Structure formats: structure tokens, C-alpha cells
Amino acid sequence: MSLSQTLWQANQDLAAASLNNPFVQGIGDGSLPKENFAYYVGQDAFFLEAFARAYSIAAAKAPDWESFQTFHALAEGVLQELNLHQGYAKDWNVDIKTVEPGTATRQYTDFLLSTAWSQPVGVTAVAMSPCMRLYAYLGQQLAKGDNSAHQYQDWITTYSSDEFEPLAKQLETIVDQHSVDTALTRSTYRYAMTCERDFFQAAWVL
After folding, report:
1. pTM for this prediction
2. What does the pLDDT profile of the chain (206 residues) look like in tens digits?
3. Is 98 exposed, middle or buried (0-12, 13-18, 19+ CB in 10 A)?
4. Residue 174 and residue 125: Cα distance in Å, rounded?
5. Does residue 171 contact residue 132 with C-beta atoms inside 8 Å?
6. Distance between CA atoms of residues 66 and 195, nearest Å
7. Residue 69 CA to chain centroid, in angstroms?
8. I need a labelling partner for 46 at 20 to 30 A (CA). Which of 7, 53, 102, 128 fits?
């Protein structure tokens, strides 16, 4: 089993906690209150900007041309995701430019950016991989449920799509190529997974 698979399997408790969070389940069945999703849209846009910056920092530090290209391609994917959020923001009357990050959001973005600046690309990839793999997992799991059209169907479609899964795998390939199985690697991955769980919870308990 690859390192990325080992890390993912070791954190199935946190993956399940995110999937079973009332916020995520509310997206799945369409019952999530609009104000909760509107808050999430603003916070996620703030997060994604930091995510794109972390990719760019990692690209600058990449030890080989292939990794450099991969990080830039992944950053481009985040920019496309931000465009999706701008559409959400318009639909949900959220002014992304005035969003103030909540505590959970700031803890996550500060962690990602400090890791990107201070650690080699392998550790940065480990810090970023949980977000990509978890969202692919959540999208795919929610897509197995009732497919009746509702207001959050686009979210499920995006993250369960054949286009998103390869992005998660691209980042995991960098993890496998440039990371080693150390205590730092495991704690970095788990902290990112914890941040994901807390991010969803913060959007639920407004």
C-alpha cells in the first residue's frame, strides 16, 4: 500500500466524522439551512485562496520539473473551483471580498501556509492531500444517495465528478514520490484531517 493510501486509511475515523457531520449530511439530502451554506461558501473561498497560494509556494520549491508542473496544474484547478464559488456567492448573496475568516478557517489556512513556507514539498503535499481526498470521498459517498434534484446538487456533482478524482490522485502521487513515513508526516496529515472536520462543524454551529 502506498504512503498516501496508508495515511488515508489511518484517518478513516476523521473521514467518517466529516461525512456524518450534520452539515455534510444536510448537503447530501438538501436539508441544510441556506444560511449555513452561505457561511460555508464565504469561508471556503477564503480557504481556497490560501490553498492556491500554498500550491504556488510548493511549486517554487519543487525539486523537479514534473512536480513543478503538477503543482501549477493543481493551483489552476483551485482557481477554477474559486470561480464556482463566485457563482455560489452570487446565488447566495455572499460578498466574498468582505468575508472575515472564522477561527476554524484561520487555523487551517495558517497551518497550510506555514507548512508550505517552512517544509519541503513532500510535507506540504501531505498537508494539502487530505482536503482533496476527503472532498472526493464526500462527493462520491453523497452521490450514492437519493439523486433527487435539490439546491446543493451542484456541490455533490462537482466533487463526485470524474474530473475531480484525478486531481486528488495527482497530489497523492507527489506525496508518494516526495514524502517518507515519519511521525511528522502522520501528524501533519492527521492535523489537516482534523481541520477539515472542524471546518464543517464551524459551518454547522453558527
Report:
1. 0.94
2. 999 999 999 999 999 999 999 999 999 999 999 999 989 989 998 999 999 999 999 999 999 999 999 999 999 888 887 877 677 777 777 777 788 999 999 999 999 999 999 999 999 999 999 999 999 999 999 999 876 788 899 899 989 999 999 999 999 999 999 999 999 999 999 999 999 999 999 999 98
3. exposed
4. 7
5. yes
6. 29
7. 20
8. 7
30: left (phi over 0), alpha (psi -120 to 50) or beta: left
Q: Please state at what angle helix 121-143 crosses helix 183-204, rounded to 10 degrees.
A: 40
Q: How far apart are CA 38 and CA 17, in angstroms?
A: 22
Cα dihedral sign for 162, 164, 166, 168? Answer: negative
Sign of the dihedral defined by the CA atoms of residues 65, 70, 75, 80, in that order: positive
Q: Which residue has the cell 441556506?
A: 34
> In sequence order, which ranges of 30-64 are alpha helices (DSSP H)?
34-61
As to burial, measured by CB atoms within 10 angstroms (0-12 exposed, 13-18 middle, 19+ buried), residue 149 is: exposed
Identify whether the C-beta of residue 204 lies closer than 8 Å to the C-beta of residue 36: yes
Contact between 193 and 14 (Cβ < 8 Å): yes
For the chain, domains (ranges, CATH) are 3-204 (1.20.910.10)
